[in-house]
Model the fold of this input.
Amino acid sequence: MRRRSVLAAGTCLLILAVGASVHGQARGGDEAYGTRKYADFERPETCRQCHVDFYYQWQQAMMSQAYVHHWDEIEYFKLAVPHAEKDPKVAGVKAGCNGCHSPLAFVSGDTPPPLPSAGSRANEAVSCEVCHLVVGRTADTSYNYNYILEPGRVKHGNREGVVSPHHITRYSEFLRTAEFCGTCHNEKSPYGVWVKSTQLEWAEGPYAKEGVPCQVCHMPRAPGRSANTAKEEHPDIAQHLFHGAHDPGKVKGAIEVRMHPSEREVEPGDRIVITVQLFNGKCGHKVPSGSAEERQLWLHVEAVDAKGRVYHLPVDRKGFAGEEQTITSNELAYQDIGEILGDPTFQGLPRDALPEGDRIFCLPYFDPRGRRTIAQWNTASQGVDYRIGPRETKIETYTWLVPQDIAIGRVTVRAELNYRRLVKSVADFLGVPEDETEIIRVNEASTWFDVVD
Ligand code: HEC
Ligand code: HEC
Ligand code: HEC
Ligand code: HEC
Ligand code: HEC
Done:
């Protein structure tokens, strides 16, 4: 379980704790549970007095919503808490979810915290203080909230020698690294499976080698002042945008799509092959990343003949082990939801809730009984990782026996690459509002060939 995995890093923890804390209290991960109080932390509204722009940028980013956002509330209170109360194997998540989603609640030992509607300080989620009081991590690998928080007047930033009337500032190398983000963006399930690995994916890819951490893409630089009371401007102020899956502008174009036919002229009954290339040119990790158990990225290909008749082309199979998980299907899945809810009549929900036969770029998560799950904490194994890595190009083919009755003339073939944050069948069943299942068109491409007599 979480507690054990953090203890395994115990030696490291002690060394770091001595170096990092003047109070000798610095703890991270599960060791930090209940070691602080809410009152040890300042509110974001205090920071707003001077850091006006950052406050409103942050307020629009999902990390300020990580506790109050509807789907977070539903998954935590409807699934995770009841599950933790009945299955000892996952008991730790009742507190543990908040190690990342509401760090103040976690370190204050407030479990479960009041509902978001109560307006408690748990709602501050990943606040200014959470990031700017971090002094290190407890192990060589970042995961499961193993950041070390040290509340107090010292705020850690990215510049040497900046002066504030409200607090002391100190330069932090760690804050500028991907490993800092990884303390919450990598997660291991109680079964020891990596169920979030954005920083680990990044570390294996080209951007780590080129020294381009998360901050470059998610906190872009612009000239200005970081506080309205700041003495001088800087050419490279780190904007607190943190745009990701909830920003269509960020998701659009993340993957480029091109396609071409194997020939330009065919007769009815001939075989033609359409080839599609998908290039991840914009993203520092795999797409989808993070909550891969519930994100969907799929390629839908259609041909339209000269009379406007539409044909859906299913993707060619490559024949690798576990490939069926990477081709859309509506077989019943997510049966563990029924067990968590104590509903023996629950049969499951359609796996992808999409047209069948499309390629879906995913990493399937399986519960202890080998069934697909969207409960990442209940993940005991995973299937083949068929997501698109940073600067990777995936090639898909579509072999088509052109129908005998197709219209003579030009056929247009279209490919649409779509993204959805949450499987629609799951969202509908759990009552998650529709914005979470909005479909974002990542990219599209088209090509053509002619059908002749
Ligand atoms: C009374 C005004 C004021 C308040 C309130 C305030 N700050 Fe600051 N802060 C400043 C000024 C001024 C600077 C220096 C900016 C500069 O010179 O570029 C600064 C700098 C910083 C830096 C260092 C930035 C760097 O470039 O390294 C951090 C981090 C920071 N503040 C965080 C916070 C947090 C978190 C809060 C709320 C708990 C907060 N501040 C509240 C005025 C304030
Ligand atoms: C080269 C630019 C780049 C770098 C570096 C980068 N990202 Fe991203 N990130 C993106 C883009 C573009 C998207 C939108 C596409 C998507 O959702 O995957 C994104 C999406 C995300 C998402 C949402 C993923 C999902 O599908 O739910 C998270 C979370 C995220 N990034 C965190 C990070 C973290 C943490 C790091 C560092 C370890 C990082 N990113 C590094 C460009 C980058
Ligand atoms: C998810 C973590 C995170 C949160 C939340 C966060 N920050 Fe930051 N902040 C950073 C990082 C990382 C940097 C440094 C970026 C770099 O240099 O790569 C930074 C930089 C800053 C700076 C200096 C900017 C510059 O370029 O001079 C200030 C000031 C600051 N943050 C204040 C705030 C305030 C105020 C809030 C809340 C409204 C806040 N931060 C919320 C991570 C965070
Ligand atoms: C204390 C934990 C914590 C730290 C540290 C942290 N994050 Fe996050 N981050 C979260 C959580 C929790 C979410 C999910 C928010 C939600 O509920 O949708 C998230 C979501 C995101 C998203 C997705 C936003 C979207 O639109 O869906 C991005 C991008 C992101 N974080 C970037 C970063 C970067 C970059 C850093 C480091 C500078 C960082 N985070 C550090 C906890 C953290
Ligand atoms: C190690 C840190 C960590 C832990 C522990 C954690 N989460 Fe998260 N969670 C994140 C991050 C980071 C994201 C954003 C990933 C992305 O954008 O793809 C996220 C995303 C989510 C989302 C999707 C939000 C959205 O709007 O799309 C939900 C729901 C969620 N978490 C619920 C939970 C629950 C319930 C638990 C406990 C069983 C939990 N999380 C445990 C870090 C964590």
